[in-house]
Each structure stands twice: as structure tokens, then as C-alpha cells.
Design goal:
By secondary structure, the protein is α+β, with helices and mostly antiparallel strands. The chain is 35% helix and 32% strand.
Length: 94
């Protein structure tokens, strides 16, 4: 049951990113990569054997850290609302 809970917690933390575009993926250091998303969020992935400091986070070895932007949530909400309005305005016609 503990494994299921950990899996759920992991998914719950990352699920908002499924609606975002991956804007950039770059190597920061050997074995350390940054993925940036359209809402301003970043995931720092450390494949190395030592911790890696990034901004206010310390990314452990063989781990990742999600850095969310507070304003990003509002932008994402506005985008979804705008998309919903445009879709509704077209009445589903192509």
C-alpha cells in the first residue's frame, strides 16, 4: 500500500504539467538536465551521484526537483478559460 501512495503522490505533484508544452530541454552540468514548460515550471533532473544545487533547491543524486512558478498557475488558468471560450464560440464546427 505504501508504494501505491508514493506513486499517487508523485503523479499528483506532476499532473498539471500534462497540459503544458515542453519548451526547452538543456544540460546544466554533466548528468544534470533542466526541462522548462510553457507555464514557467522547471524540472531539474540529476542523474549523477552527488547532489546538485539549483536556485533554492538541492536536487539529490538520481532524483529530480519540480520548481513551479506561482504566477504560472494563473496564466495556465487564463489560457484554459480562453481556449474553452474559443471552442464554445465555434459551436464545435471546424
Amino acid at each position: 500500500m505504501a508504494k501505491i501512495k508514493r506513486g499517487y503522490d508523485e503523479f499528483h505533484r506532476l499532473w498539471p504539467l500534462q497540459l503544458e508544452f515542453m519548451e526547452q530541454h538543456e544540460q546544466l552540468a554533466p548528468s544534470v538536465f533542466r526541462t522548462m514548460f510553457s507555464d514557467g515550471s522547471e524540472i531539474i533532473t540529476n542523474y549523477g551521484s552527488a547532489a546538485y544545487p539549483y536556485k533554492s533547491a538541492l536536487v539529490g543524486p538520481m532524483d529530480y526537483s519540480l520548481i513551479r512558478r506561482p504566477q504560472a498557475k494563473r496564466q495556465t488558468g487564463q489560457h484554459r478559460q480562453k481556449v474553452g471560450w474559443e471552442r464554445g464560440g465555434s459551436e464545435g464546427r471546424l
